[in-house]
Amino acid sequence: MSAEPNPHTPEVRLEVSGIRKQFPGVVALDDVSLRLRAGEIHALLGENGAGKSTLIKILTGVYQADEGEIRLDGAPVRFASPRSALAAGISVVHQERNLIPQFTVAENILLERIPTRGLQLVDNAAINRLAKPWIEMVGLDAAPATPVAELSVAQMQLVEIAKALSLQARILLMDEPTAAITPHEVGYLFRILGDLRRRNVALVFVSHKLEEVFELCDRVTVLRDGRNASSDVVVATLDRDQLVTYMIGRAEVIAELPPKPEPGEPVLEVRGLTTDPRDSGISLLLRKGEVLGLYGLVGAGRSRLAKTLVGEIKITGGEVRVRGVKTRINGFREALERHRIGYVSEDRKQEGLILLHSVRANTSITIWRRLRMIGQWIRRAAEDAAILPSLRQLDVKAHSLSQPVGTLSGGNQQKVSIAKWLAAKAEILIIDEPTVGIDIKTKNALHELIWDLAANGKSILLISSDMPEVIRLSDRILVMRNHAIVGDLPNTHQYDAMSEAIMAQLS
Amino acid sequence: MQRLRGVVPGLAVGLLVIDLVGMLVLSVVTPSFLSTYNLFVTGRDLSILLLVALAQMVVLSLGQMNLSIGSIGGLVAIIESGLMVRYGVPVPVALAAGLVLGIACGVINGVLVYWTKINSFVLTLATSYIFAGINLGITHATPFYHIPGEISSFGQARVGAFPVMAAVTIVLTVGLAFFLYQVVLGRQLLAVGGNQLAARLSGLPVRRAVVTAHAISGFLAAVAGTMLMAQLGQGQPTIGATWVLPSFAGPIIGGAALSGGSAPVIGTVLAMVLISLIDDGLVLVNADPFWVQFLIGALILGAVVLGRTRLTEIMAFVLRARPPVREELTR
């Protein structure tokens, strides 16, 4: 797996070799190497659990390697703590934002170096003055004194990059920076990263989206099961299939989805729905056995629409018909128990699951009331009998029903958060961003699962900002923008034509 | 053990070992530890403080706190004794009124926490002053002496070394465990504690869960207050004044997550046994009474640190020596 010679052979800034890291009972990394060069963007890829996060934590001093060597500019180094890694010029922009929301942009950038005037008084003017150049460098369109809580996710990311730059970062690790931002913002982020590359920063880019790797990155290292599946390969010499083969150990098979019966009678009809005087009114029609895609960027109002349909947000105008009957849905319980509508929320960790609790409790939570015996108690055997079919149908992998759901993989967590609605016999499923942060293998499995559910008569409103996903699964695609539906397209499943048609609706 | 939601098995086993070692050490060092009378007194204190700890555990399992447990216990005790002593109300009626009052105090806490969205720490700190203030206003800090003899003799009753009052505690402890792990409302309560948003999005009645947890907490505090009144033989206004520390120490040493979602009943029982042993040991070795509070504080701090960090890891390591049983769901 030798690297192609690079035309301008830039200096190797960080060289990691023979890294081994063991946790009780599991080897997380074994003989892993990584070579970062100044002025290059290096993609670090791998399925969930392949060891990317562990490697990043070793590079940033959170963990220490059991074996192996890290060389910075040729000299061996050891990072005993995140502080020493920062001091050596290595910064990381995490998937989870590490900002203090109540503090201003400038305060966050200069957090551990707040300038003071005598007596340790905070010098606000100096904070804003000193932070300004970094804010401008990343092109963040916000005043230094803006509280971070008022920014969008993409803007917060820029604040983190500005912070890293202000720390004189010579190596910048970006952990899934595009997971939560819109395509437009991704374009902007890539321009900033391109700028940094020209400034000779060594960048690491972690992503599940291969298209982005091809667009942005110079070289790639792939981890699989804690080992190098490839190391330091020039991206231009690869194609998508090769990259996927590195990642999953075999060629990717995107199975043709089997034919599905034509959608039947309307099950959910919405006409002129408003939740706010500024709304222009939303109308949609979902049929039995249909996958209705709802595509739109983050902030277009998709999740708000979903929450309105399950009664979480009050309706101010328009009408909703479920199976032809005009109705009002007041709250989740009514949505589920009367109308058989389930909502698989976008943020499974925050909204979908109780991570500390068992697979059993997380799945049966929707049917406890139905299961109760005289005296309000639940028989374990009846509970298991009620949930096992759903868990089996979705092929949830767990050691036992008592395993805490937080210890399952992301894909299995997502399956549990769908299984609980199946156990409750929901007929209409509103599924919000089902595959965010989920790796390729599992993503395919989830796609087939959603398809399967529809083929078996469930009606699915699929909310997604993942265009390939929407085009692959939907029967029809609604395009949403600024809290209004701007397009209703029959889906031909032809990616190029469909994606153009969707983008045309958005611009 | 696996059946009990929220129990950290390693922690419980570790606590059990420490409890047994502690008993062994105490019985060797001070032979009077095994005397019938000492076991009776220790067991009786334990029966009361365990209810106090469970009263806190229920609210902790919701991810909240209840700082008013002691003042609910105190208020209930003086209302009950006042009704009986001052107004001659029959014993069962007075006790029933007291328990209803305890539940009502809990419901007030729960409703206020739910409606105002004020942090439960602040809110129950305020209501604890209100409940204690009513207590003081009524009693002017003077106890109600001469409560009916059947109550004080219940407080002293024993079968061998076994305090009869402990039967109440055992029934309530088992009942609480069953409620939390196996009854719909109890499970809903744990689910709300584990992730309130997810619970609400799954259609669970969040308000009912919050109010129920606080009501149970008030009820257990009321029973504990009643039992301490029976033990003392009088309606002491200071009943419950020292309960804050044990109420938190039990569940926290026992493995409760302060963020909510776990209700380690067994862990809390074992932790309270440990605290009673510490308490009793200090008495038996004639520790300077003026330093006892310091020692209890320091020992509990030590137990919390040990229990929450080392012990879990050590026991997890020991228990992992056994291969886990693989039970694939999708055979």
Question: Can I get a quick summary?
Answer:
Chain A has helices at 52-59, 82-87, 105-109, 124-137, 153-166, 183-198, 210-216, 240-248, 302-309, 331-337, 348-352, 359-364, 368-371, 380-393, 410-423, 440-455, 467-473, 495-506, and strands at residues 12-23, 26-37, 41-45, 67-72, 75-77, 90-93, 116-117, 121-122, 171-175, 202-206, 219-224, 227-234, 266-274, 282-287, 291-296, 317-322, 325-327, 341-344, 428-432, 459-464, 476-481, 484-490. Chain A is α/β, with parallel strands linked by helices and 507 residues long. Chain A is globular, with a radius of gyration of 25 Å.
CATH class of chain B: Mainly Alpha
Q: What assembly state would you assign to the polypeptide chains in this entry?
A: heterodimer
Q: CATH topology of the largest domain in chain A, which one?
A: Rossmann fold
Mean pLDDT of chain A: 84
The number of domains of chain B: 1
Structural class estimated from helices and strands of chain A: alpha/beta
Biggest sheet statistics of chain B: 2 strands, antiparallel
Helix amount of chain B, in percent? over 70%
The fraction of residues assigned to DSSP E strands of chain A is 25-35%
Describe this structure in words.
- The complex is a heterodimer of chains A (507) and B (331).
- By secondary structure, chain A is of the alpha/beta class.
- Chain A has 4 domains: 1-89 and 170-252, P-loop containing nucleotide triphosphate hydrolases (Rossmann fold, 3-Layer(aba) Sandwich), CATH 3.40.50.300; 96-168, no CATH class; 255-340 and 427-507, P-loop containing nucleotide triphosphate hydrolases (Rossmann fold, 3-Layer(aba) Sandwich); 355-425, no CATH class.
- Chain A has 18 helices and 22 strands.
- Chain A has helices spanning 52-59, 82-87, 105-109, 124-137, 153-166, 183-198, 210-216, 240-248, 302-309, 331-337, 348-352, 359-364, 368-371, 380-393, 410-423, 440-455, 467-473, 495-506, and strands at 12-23, 26-37, 41-45, 67-72, 75-77, 90-93, 116-117, 121-122, 171-175, 202-206, 219-224, 227-234, 266-274, 282-287, 291-296, 317-322, 325-327, 341-344, 428-432, 459-464, 476-481, 484-490.
- The longest helix of chain A has 16 residues, at 183-198.
- Residues 1-7 of chain A have low confidence and may be disordered.
- Chain B is an all-alpha fold and 331 residues long.
- Chain B has a single domain (9-320), classed as ABC transporter involved in vitamin B12 uptake, BtuC, CATH 1.10.3470.
- A two-stranded antiparallel ribbon of chain B has the order 1-2.
- In chain B, helix 2 (36-60) packs parallel to helix 7 (165-182).
- Chain B is globular.
- The A-B interface holds A 24-25, 312, 331-333, 335-337, 343, 345, 350-359, 361, 365-366, 368-369, 371-372, 375-378, 380, 388, 391-392, 395-402, 420 and B 2-3, 5-6, 178, 182-185, 187-188, 190-191, 194-195, 197-205, 257, 261-262, 317, 320, 324-330.
